[in-house]
Write a structure and sequence with these properties.
alpha+beta; Chloramphenicol Acetyltransferase; 6-stranded mixed beta sheet
Length: 475
């Protein structure tokens, strides 16, 4: 609800605003595939819009727009948009025949290529018809400054119900718009905070430095390489694409029961099994391209740091781990054991640092300085002179364990398309849902034209790991 006060962005939210470029917009996209046969009536575009409008009171970020501070001397703010128009965010499209998964994935990638309009709330809604079997899809595209992964899962669940015809009353809408502050007002508001920036930067520098030292000491005493940024080999998806890159998208799905079987057999976490599945798929992919490196890849693995009582917190609350992904190993059992060892030591190093290194690093710079740094990094070509900070990113989200319904239609699958960056041209986003672990694979099309082979490799690796469990039990 608007309360007459603008809402400051957090340091990490501001990071995603500052790193947003036309080459690589900082938005994600949730693809929800629906079975309309369970709905009590026809699942039309207008009906979906009415359903969404009724749930708006439970979706606070959807009516906030961004207001920037002149010269980037302080963080931007969110304002309850006085010009909010729901129709401006809704779109209606159809996939061409035969309407299969690959046709839908191409459409998702095309929609994901285009930046959002920052003169209004940073999201879009797409209703997609023409899918095989009479299915429909909903795409919700939203800037990462508004929400992180788990915040997005919590927010999107307000759109869903446990039954096709839920017994619930829609919330009363008490939302009120705010006045967009003038640039002079934004500057006056920011000056006291900006005056303290050197002290904040010094504090962040001290925290970052001490955290790095503690983390390095923890890695030095660990039994395996815990992994660190800028330490991986260069592979094709770390190349720089000239001009404007384009996304490619694919997905895979495996049984959570199978994941549990592997987790128990190898004394692993669900995240370890997911990383091992990705490692096996990328082993096949890189080997087929004759570019399999002799050393492991380094993966950015964001972790949720919300406290248990932080319900309704949608903004970014993540820290970064950097485990090694043992793609160089040919045996599936060896790969998952190596993953478990690396994530264990990486968590130890992360805990030893005692701080959020990602937040501290960007806390040293003002938003305007980050903007300039991104221009230097991408436009002038500094990105191509440095090793990739990570070979790829893999993020794992916990979704609802039971089936959900959207306007009465059963949710069949939920796949997430992510943002990309120069030198990080592959991101895999996982989400558990209704007994399945679902992988959304986002890649730079110019670097990874056969992205579906990575999706197929994940499902093949599941079979190999289950065979390894059987071999281990027989031994």
């Amino acid at each position: 609800m608007g309360d007459g006060r603008v809402k400051d962005l957090s340091a990490l939210d501001t990071l995603f605003v500052s790193t947003d470029t036309r080459r690589y917009p900082m938005h994600g996209l949730g693809l929800m595939i629906l079975d309309p046969s369970t709905a009590p009536g026809p699942l039309t575009y207008e009906r979906m819009k009415r359903h969404f409008r009724a749930r708006l009171p439970q979706l606070p970020p959807m009516r906030r727009r961004l207001a920037r501070v002149p010269l980037g001397i302080d963080r931007p703010v969110w304002v309850e948009d006085p010009g909010f128009d729901l129709d401006a965010h809704f779109h209606h499209v159809a996939v061409p025949p035969p309407g299969d998964d690959r046709e839908l994935a191409t459409l998702v990638a095309d929609i994901g290529n285009n930046p959002l309009d920052d003169t209004r709330p940073l999201w879009e809604y797409w209703f997609v018809e023409g899918l095989a079997g009479g299915r429909v899809a909903v795409l919700i595209k939203m800037h990462h400054a508004c929400i992180d992964g788990m915040g997005g899962i919590e927010m999107v669940q307000h759109l869903f119900d446990l039954a096709p015809t839920p017994e619930r009353e829609e919330p009363v809408d008490t939302w009120e718009p705010e006045t967009i502050p003038s640039q002079a007002q934004m500057l006056a508001r920011a000056l006291p905070t900006a005056a303290l920036w050197p002290f904040r930067a010094a504090r962040s520098s001290l925290k970052l430095g001490s955290g790095l030292v503690r983390g390095r000491r923890a890695r030095a005493t660990s039994s395996a390489d815990a992994g660190k940024a800028f330490s991986g080999p260069k592979v094709s998806f770390n190349e720089i694409v000239p001009g404007r890159p384009h996304k490619a998208f694919a997905w895979a799905s495996v049984s959570m029961e199978d994941v549990k079987t592997i987790r128990v057999a190898f004394d692993a976490k669900v995240n370890d099994v997911a990383l091992a599945l990705c490692a096996g798929s990328l082993h096949q992919y890189l080997e087929a391209r004759d570019e399999l490196p002799a050393e492991p890849l380094t993966v950015a693995n964001p972790i949720n740091i919300r406290e248990s009582d932080e319900n309704g917190v949608y903004e970014n609350k993540v820290a970064m781990m950097a485990p090694r992904l043992p793609t160089q190993l040919g045996d599936p059992a060896e790969r998952i054991r190596a993953v478990v060892a690396s994530t264990t030591d990486t968590k130890t190093a992360s805990r030893a640092s005692g701080t959020n290194l990602l937040e501290d690093f960007f806390g040293i710079m003002s938003p305007g300085m980050v903007d300039v740094a991104m221009q230097v990094y991408t436009t002038i070509g500094v990105a191509g002179m440095l090793p990739a900070p990570y070979n790829l990113c893999i993020t794992n989200l916990i979704g609802p364990p039971i089936p959900l319904h959207f306007a009465g239609a059963r949710l069949e699958g939920f796949y997430i398309e992510m943002m990309l960056l120069d030198t990080i041209g592959l991101v895999i986003a996982l989400m558990s849902y209704a007994g399945r672990l679902q992988f959304g694979i986002t890649a730079t099309r110019e670097l990874t034209p056969h992205v579906w082979s990575i999706a197929e490799g994940i499902e093949e690796e599941m079979g190999l790991l289950l065979e390894a469990v059987g071999t281990q039990a027989a031994g």
